[in-house]
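lol forgot to send this yesterday, sorry. struct tokens for the thing we talked abt
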């Protein structure tokens, strides 16, 4: 029961951080669109801003990592987010160009898909050692 409660707390914290990442991502994305940046370049920049926010808050608050960040953890985070970024980029393009969805709807769908990938990857790979200590 304790493990289930702790897992729920971690998931809720991840969702809260995810919401802040989304605000950062969407804010940067639509700001860049407004000033005339092409939407795919805006996606890359906004995703990077959300990724930086994600690393800091998930490390410190969601997974409460106590030890100093190391290159192995940073590498895993970057690889995971690069994969999620490619996925969101391709999904945004596909929904926008091939399916003709609105830019907003395409962005929302791509963001949700990216969040699922990053939660699973963060939980099972990036911050796995700290999570296993906490709930194991």
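and heres what i got for the seq, position by position
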């Amino acid at each position: 029961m304790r493990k289930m409660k702790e897992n729920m707390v971690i998931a809720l914290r991840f969702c809260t951080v995810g919401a802040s990442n989304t605000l950062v991502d969407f804010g940067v994305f639509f700001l860049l669109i407004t000033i005339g940046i092409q939407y795919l370049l805006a996606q890359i920049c906004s995703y990077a801003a959300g990724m930086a926010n994600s690393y800091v808050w998930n490390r410190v608050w969601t997974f409460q990592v106590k030890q100093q960040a190391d290159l192995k953890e940073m590498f895993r985070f970057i690889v995971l987010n690069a994969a999620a970024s490619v996925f969101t980029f391709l999904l945004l393009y596909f929904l926008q160009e091939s399916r003709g969805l609105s830019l907003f709807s395409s962005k929302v769908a791509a963001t949700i898909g990216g969040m699922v990938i990053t939660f699973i990857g963060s939980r099972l790979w990036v911050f796995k050692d700290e999570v296993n200590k906490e709930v194991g």
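The chain has five helices and no strands. anyway ping me if u want another try
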